[in-house]
Amino acid sequence: MVNKRVMLPVEEVDVSAVKYEREVVKAPHLTGFTLKLFVWMLEAPLIGSLITSVVKRKNRIPELLRHTVIPETPMFRPEFPPQEVEPVVMIMDEDSEPRARLETALGCLPPHDPRHRLNNTSRNSFLYWTIRDFAHAYRSKLTTPSIVAEDIISAIGDSNNQIPPMPLLIAFDPEELRKQAAASTRRFEEGNPLSILDGIFVAIKDDIDCYPYPTKGATTWFHEIRPVREDAVCVSRLRSCGVVFIGKANMHELGLGVTGNNPNYGTTRNPHSVDRYTGGSSSGPAALVASGLCSAALGTDGGGSIRIPSSLCGVVGLKTTYGRTTMQGTLCDAGTVEVVAPIAATVEDIVLVYAAMLGASRSDRICLKPSAPCLPYLSSSESLDALRSLRLGKYTEWFTDVYSTDISNKCEDALNRLYDAYGCKTIEIVLPELQEMRVAHVVSIGSESACGLNPDYEDGKCSEFNHDTRTSLALFRSFSATDYVAAQRLRRRIMYYYMEVFKKVDVIVTPTTGMTAPLIPASSLKFGESNYEVAGYLMRFIIAANLLGLPAISVPVGHDKQGLPIGLQLIGRPWGEANILRLASAVEGCILFSMLKMFPLNEQKVVYSFI
Questions:
Q1: 535, 514 in Cβ contact below 8 A?
Q2: Of residues 205, 248, 319, 394, which has the active-site annotation?
Q3: Is residue 295 flagged as an active site residue?
Q4: Helix (H/G/I), strand (E/B), else coil: 6
Q5: pLDDT greater than 60 at residue 368
Q6: Helix count (H) and strand count (E) of the chain?
Q7: pLDDT higher than 80, residue 96
Q8: How many whole angstroms separate alpha carbon 440 and alpha carbon 487?
Q9: Which of 67, 90, 236, 479 is most buried, by CB atoms within 10 Å?
């Protein structure tokens, strides 16, 4: 016998009476031989079922799903009510050519002054060359894409040979890079660059197709059963703008982890502290941008896989509304929580790459009915008025549920700076059923991942996965159809809570992660690591944007006492990328202004340098 729970219809819940429950993830921390032994037991016919049952029970999964009466009907994909057009924006035509959208995006940015960066040739620094800095340098003949390519090739060689090694890329061909850079250099010499992105170096996560490189998903075998014959649509759009692709960036195997650990190709290390994780699963893309090796990178995000590493590496990571950009040509193109989106060093670079790559698939336009994509004007007085009018929602008990108060304090400080500079008011909100949301997300992404991988798993590929991947798949394969449908009932229920909150506020603010970059155990390098407690801290605030399909962005706001980056997350209304980009740009400006006060301009160092 079990105790049946009966939930009230969501419209009848008294939100004011909701009490916050601290999240506690209960699972063993395993590395090395202990992890190997645990995986062997998990995959054993009888004992494996017993272990997964115990883990699920300790984490309340049966209680919140199978033992609960959930009155709402299932929502199998994010469904949004109609949204009003955001103020002071440029409406984009997603059917137009990427180069035309880039020209529109440039008109939304403030005037460009390259002197702060280009006149400073120092290395090992924190002010990155932006895309417009490179574009100015190419057009002013200060450098060429071919010269930059040689610097990148040298830096990648150095990163692989340093101790410990920094395995940033899974697939890298110096001659392919030289060929692309030479073609871009010729276009500049002839006075015919394709766009502002011509000659801009971008890395592609290894679950996104970028011809002629294979797509392995950081496995050792996936490319053997899924050959790549053309670019993913998002990559093709960037290529048409003259982007130079560095190669395929390292990642957590098949995206089924949030640390970036990968024994297959080596674990990518955090440029801010090489004994710590980058976060994942887009570990390589975030580390490449943070190292100054490229202006931007493409990642995928189904459970924080862009925002987590962006936060831990001190760069900007955008998660768009579900369906905003087609997933065609990616390994995770059939799920209900994933997006493909950019990582960059600055918000303006995010704006440019996003403008070039956006565009929903035909089927998503029919099913999701997306609002027209918009970009914020970032330089007009009307934009300042729009910024002042933004209402920020903060659930304080959730906001402060972090591993170290350094995180919540820095994020709170950023909100105070926004208020002082622009008058952005913070309003207290309550978001019920966070535990239910966590369970609904893990069952959704887990069931969808297991469904896609099951044919290969049953075909004997199970033993070729990493041990932590096998641990996750053992759990995911234990979910039933009943669990999955219950999770979709919860999705509809939780969507209601968020849409009600968005009647009162424009953006929800949280820390991006509940902890800064965790240490890499030496015992994890060969056989991997399973640490769901750390995963719980890293994923604490990011799940809503994936389960509900909402846009979100992580922007750096400082460092903890150990010098590790901290990110602030901004979650917007459906299709509301413009508002979060506008606010992220303002946060970035406040943080930069505080740095300028601490360090005079002539003392600052600039990154076109690497690592």
A1: no
A2: 205
A3: no
A4: strand
A5: yes
A6: 24, 21
A7: yes
A8: 4
A9: 479
Report whether 429 contacts 394 (CB < 8 A): yes
d(CA 41, CA 551): 40
Q: Is the pLDDT of residue 377 over 50?
A: yes
Tell me the two tokens of residue 475.
Answer: 């759990």
pTM of the model: 0.96
- Determine the 3-state secondary structure of 359 from DSSP: strand
Question: What is the helix (H) or strand (E) element at residue 529, kind and residue range?
Answer: strand 529-530
What the block records as the tokens of 564 is 């590790």
The answer, yes or no, to whether the previous bond of 212 is cis (omega within 30 of 0) is yes
Beta strands 552-559 and 316-319: pairing type?
Answer: antiparallel
pLDDT tens profile 169-219: 999 999 999 999 999 999 999 999 999 999 999 999 999 999 999 999 999
The pLDDT of residue 595 is 66
Cβ(425)–Cβ(507) below 8 Å: no
Which amino acid, 194? L
Q: Which of 146, 305, 310, 609 is catalytic?
A: 305
What tokens were used for 41? Answer: 């037991």
> Which H/E stretch holds residue 507?
strand 507-511
Task: Give kind and range of the element (H or E) at residue 204.
Answer: strand 201-205
Check pLDDT > 80 for residue 240.
Answer: yes
CA-wise closest residue to 511 among 408, 396, 393, 403: 408
Angle in degrees, 0-180, between the axes of helices 467-476 and 47-58, rounded to the nearest 10: 80
Q: Is residue 600 predicted with pLDDT exceeding 90?
A: no
Q: Give the tokens for residue 243.
A: 């982007």
Question: Which residues lie below 8 Å from residue 12, measured CB to CB, with a gap of 6+?
Answer: none
Instruction: Supply the pLDDT for residue 601.
Output: 46
Instruction: Respond yes or no: is residue 383 known to be catalytic.
Output: no
Question: Distance of CA 178 to CAs 148, 151, 152, 153, 242, Å?
Answer: 10, 11, 10, 9, 14
- Token pair in block for residue 270: 């955090």
Instruction: Please state at what angle helix 577-598 crosses helix 381-388, rounded to 10 degrees.
Output: 100
Q: 131: Cβ–Cβ under 8 A, 6 or more apart, which residues?
A: 196, 197, 200, 295, 296, 344, 348, 349, 352, 353
Whole-number pLDDT of residue 128:
85
pLDDT of residue 382: 86
Backbone angles phi, psi at 114, to 5 degrees: -80, -5
Whether 364 has a pLDDT exceeding 90, the answer reads yes
End-to-end CA distance of the chain: 59
Residue 609, pLDDT score: 46
Top pLDDT among 85 and 607 is at 85
Average pLDDT over the chain reads: 95
Residue 284, pLDDT > 60, answer yes
What is the pLDDT confidence band of residue 597, given thresholds at 50, 70 and 90? low
Active site residue 140: no
Q: What gap in Å lies between CA 260 and CA 251, rounded to an integer?
A: 6
pLDDT for residue 252? 98
Q: Is 121's pLDDT higher than 90? A: no
Catalytic residue among 159, 184, 195, 281: 281
Q: How far apart are CA 28 and CA 520, in angstroms?
A: 17
DSSP string, 538-604: HHTTTHHHHHS---EEEEEEEE-TTS-EEEEEEEESTT-HHHHHHHHHHHHHHHHHHHHHHS-GGG-
Q: What is the DSSP string of 278-327?
A: --SSSHHHHHHHHTTS-SEEEEEESSSTTHHHHHHHT-EEEEPPTTSB--
In 413-479, which ranges are E strands? Answer: 425-428
Instruction: Dig out the tokens for 215 from the structure.
Output: 């797509």
Q: What is the pLDDT of residue 345?
A: 97
Token reading at 575: 């299709």
